[in-house]
Design goal:
Helices cover 32% and strands 30% of the residues. It is α+β, with helices and mostly antiparallel strands.
């Protein structure tokens, strides 16, 4: 496992150097394209960084599957898959803001096993191996330990679609009076790393892709957070991570504010593409299952009928 972490770390650092080198010219010429919507940008820096990461991983592990945000799809037969976001926070990058990162997650049959999130501007390097803890450089990370929901600082993010933002904004407006404050960095990977480091008490976002959160979710989990999938609008999904003592209350609250409520025992199902976090069982295409019980709730993924993240959902 250490060799995979070493290669992923070197790939993230090399990609980070390339992003820093390209940043001034991208800012100067303002040249970018768009993907899912007019507010979902992609730059030549995104694609250059992805080529570096894919090249390093592909050379070291040629039989591993590679998937990346900028159209990367490389099949493999080893049972390992790499989920790559070469520039998480492209909007920040284009606006000259510092909150962007390279995010790399290595997954096996048990879920995410290796994670690297590198923030080139600050030089911060977050790493995790399943079962071996989460680290910021040489410092082991632990989630925060004090406070209740009313004193919690919660991170979130928003969709690239107007409809999605309207829905998320309505949820946020109702959540904000119930917590101490909200943070929105523009990078899900860095927000999840912040949960791991105790700089956020919780993070939720319901319109994400695998490469957005897979590495950060392992960081948070290995630092002691609970991490659960989160249903979104029109079949989209994301993730919620929180300190253990907050999870039960915040997941029930967010689901309630989203409108996923009903009588105790109500079960809501919607398809998801992949929610492979560390945990038992395969987390391939399946159903996102939300079981509502008053103001408490739990979420699990079923793949081939087997629960993957079923804490408390017997």
């Amino acid at each position: 496992m250490s060799s995979r972490l070493d290669v992923a770390t070197l790939a993230a650092q090399e990609a980070g150097r390339e992003l820093l080198a390209l940043w001034p010219s991208v800012l100067a010429d303002g040249d970018f394209g768009t993907k899912s919507s007019d507010t979902d940008p992609v730059t030549r820096a995104d694609t250059a960084a992805q080529e570096i990461v894919a090249g390093r991983l592909g050379a070291a592990f040629p039989d591993d599957e590679l998937v990346g945000e900028e159209g990367l799809r490389h099949s493999g037969g080893s049972g390992w898959r790499w989920a790559i976001d070469p520039l998480d926070g492209t909007v920040n990058f284009l606006y000259g803001r510092d909150d962007w990162a390279v995010s790399i997650a290595g997954q096996d049959a048990g879920g995410t096993a290796v994670a690297v999130v590198h923030a080139p501007v600050s030089g911060r390097l977050y790493t995790a191996v399943r079962g071996e803890g989460a680290w910021l450089g040489s410092r082991r990370l632990r989630v925060g330990s004090d406070g209740v929901l009313g004193t919690a600082v919660v991170g979130t993010g928003f969709s690239y679609t107007s409809l999605g933002r309207s829905y998320q904004g309505a949820v946020l407006a109702r959540l904000l009076p119930l917590v101490a404050d909200i943070r929105r960095s523009g990078s899900a990977a860095l927000d999840l790393a912040a949960v791991a480091a105790g700089a956020l008490d919780a993070f939720y976002e319901d319109d994400l892709s695998l490469w957005d959160w897979a590495a950060g979710a392992l960081l948070a989990s290995e630092a002691g957070a609970l991490v659960r999938p989160l249903p979104g609008l029109d079949g989209r999904s994301g993730v919620l991570a929180a300190r253990p003592e907050l999870m039960s209350e915040i997941v029930g609250l967010v689901l309630e504010l989203q409108g996923h409520t009903g009588q105790p025992g109500t079960v809501l199902e919607q398809p998801v593409l992949d929610l492979g976090i560390a945990g038992g069982g395969e987390c391939r295409a399946g159903l996102l299952v939300v079981e509502v019980a008053a103001r408490d709730a739990c979420v699990r993924v079923r793949a081939d009928g087997q629960p993957c993240l079923g804490h408390g959902c017997e």
